[in-house]
Design goal:
This protein has 5 helices and 10 strands; from the N terminus they run βαββββαβααβββαβ. By secondary structure, the chain is of the alpha+beta class. It has a single domain (about 1-165), classed as Roll (Pnp Oxidase, Chain A).
Length: about 170
């Protein structure tokens, strides 16, 4: 059972959670949603708000949902869900119901869908979205190494409006 908690009470390391354990980025509504595994992103403070920031490539199906919806969720899981996150990162929702195939249960809140199997969920309200401009790279190796197809990420910044944790 989830309960709402204050963001200041979170005790996890975002570097471990995002880079090593991964998260699911989910957007949509009760009729249709999509999720994707992410290992890039971050949490912090910007514009006097607690925020998350995401980097989504244009070809990702989840991009359509993030563009359309005002809210998205970030779901963090325990190690028992690693296979499900791996599946969600290697299959497209365009090709079928990958959420069901991954064995996940969608919970629909008033703002954004998330997953019953998660341990921690951040509900975020979009504040800003902007395409990465390669002219801004100070270190040219970033472009060469990460964007050989020139499919630059779009950055989304969202205010964290609700934190849910499992009892």
């Amino acid at each position: 059972m989830f309960h709402e908690t204050e963001i200041q009470k979170l005790s996890f390391n975002p570097f471990t959670k995002i880079d090593k354990e991964w998260m699911l980025v989910t957007a949509g509504n009760a009729e249709k949603c999509n999720t994707m595994t992410a290992s890039w992103g971050g949490l912090g403070v910007l514009w006097n708000k607690y925020v998350s920031f995401l980097f989504i490539r244009p070809q990702r199906y989840t991009m359509e949902f993030l563009e359309r919806e005002d809210y998205y969720s970030l779901s963090f899981f325990g190690s028992s869900c690693r296979e499900a996150l791996s599946y969600c990162g290697s299959h497209s929702g365009r090709d079928g119901d990958k959420i069901k195939a991954a064995g996940l249960t969608t919970v629909y809140s008033e703002a954004a869908p998330y997953f019953e199997e998660a341990k921690t969920v951040l509900i975020c309200r979009k504040l800003h979205g902007q395409q990465i401009d390669p002219a801004g790279f100070i270190d040219p190796t970033i472009d060469a190494k990460n964007y050989p197809a020139k499919d630059y990420h779009k950055v989304f910044i969202g205010e964290i409006v609700k934190v849910l944790e499992k009892d």
